[in-house]
Design goal:
43% of the residues lie in helices and 13% in strands. With 315 residues, the chain is of the alpha+beta class.
Length: 315
């Protein structure tokens, strides 16, 4: 059974670069990636890679997170996880924080090691999960570091093909999709090194998005809608944006049954239609001008104009 909880914070609705709400839930698969602050390296030597894996194992067990796949690159970390108890935020805060303190200590430096905020996406474990594992395990190949995935030490691929055991890796959700018996590993190897076209552009998928087939995406969005409080008073938010816009967007998000981040960064025709409905409601029901709505969503006034009937357009 999958349950969801959506938490609204100060940065969900703001001008400029809004932070996305974290979609937390029991039984959700996440693709998480985090890069170095200012694109600087987060790993300089082998000992640091090993230390990160020690922390990864420790906190995955502590927070009951299954590590499905990982890739540690010089300037970034890629994790495919199953969050069994809805603790992804605590897990990542502890993992990244512990490693950052260690890195700063050994490097005799201060400041952020990773960028301010990691990116996470919800992924359907079956079907789409195999492609995500392939994308992660091909990181070193695509970066031109090696020709064969097993030649790069810092991914979970060697554990998948039984060359380097890592007891905390849980590849079952992936490997069971390649059959059973002695040919399972061979089939997975052929899949990873093959030339199939990945159905998802993982590097450009929007943070906070849901990746899966139509039924899965609909199920997630439905769960979000049913788990949202029926009333959310703006005084419960720490706002750094206009109070009236906050009030309006909370009502609109509840009415449409989607999180603000979906309206802010729609993917596909259906989500863009929902954003157009939000534009229309902001102008028609809440009295915002086309220009103001455009500024709040970082789009052109013409984009908003298309969604709003003439008689309701503000000035």
């Amino acid at each position: 059974m999958i349950t969801f909880a959506l938490t609204y914070t100060i940065a969900q609705i703001s001008l400029g670069m809004p932070k996305k709400p974290r979609l937390k839930g029991i039984g959700l698969f996440h693709y998480i990636n985090a890069g170095g602050n200012d694109r600087k390296p987060v790993f300089i030597n082998d000992h640091q890679y090993e230390k990160y894996l020690i922390f990864l194992e420790r906190y995955s067990r502590e927070h009951k997170i299954d590590i499905v796949a990982y890739a540690l690159m010089e300037r970034s970390v890629h994790l495919f996880i199953l969050d069994k108890e809805g603790k992804v935020s605590n897990f990542m805060n502890n993992l990244q924080g512990e490693y950052a303190r260690y890195f700063n200590k050994v490097a005799k430096r201060t400041g952020h090691v990773f960028g301010e905020r990691y990116n996470n996406k919800i992924v359907q474990g079956n079907n789409y999960g195999i492609w995500l594992s392939r994308y992660i395990h091909r990181q070193a190949i695509d970066a031109g570091l090696v020709k064969k995935p097993e030649d790069y030490r810092w991914t979970s691929y060697r554990a998948y093909i039984e060359l380097t055991p890592r007891g905390f890796i849980k590849p079952e959700i992936i490997m069971e999709q390649f059959g059973s018996g002695k040919n399972t590993v061979k089939h997975y190897e052929e899949f990873v090194i093959g030339h199939e076209n990945d159905p998802v552009d993982w590097s450009n998928a929007a943070p906070g998005s849901v990746i899966g087939d139509d039924d899965y995406v609909k199920k997630v969005h439905t769960k979000i809608k049913t788990s949202m409080p029926s009333t959310i008073k703006p005084k419960t938010l720490e706002l750094d944006f206009k109070k009236d816009f906050a009030e309006a967007m909370l009502k609109i998000s509840n009415h449409l049954g989607v999180a603000f981040e979906v309206l802010q960064n729609p993917i596909g025709i259906e989500e863009r239609k929902l954003r157009h409905k939000a534009f229309n409601m902001l102008v028609k029901e809440h009295g915002f001008s086309l220009r103001r709505v455009a500024g709040l969503f970082s789009v052109t006034p013409g984009t908003v104009k298309k969604a709003v009937p003439d008689r309701f357009r503000g000035k």
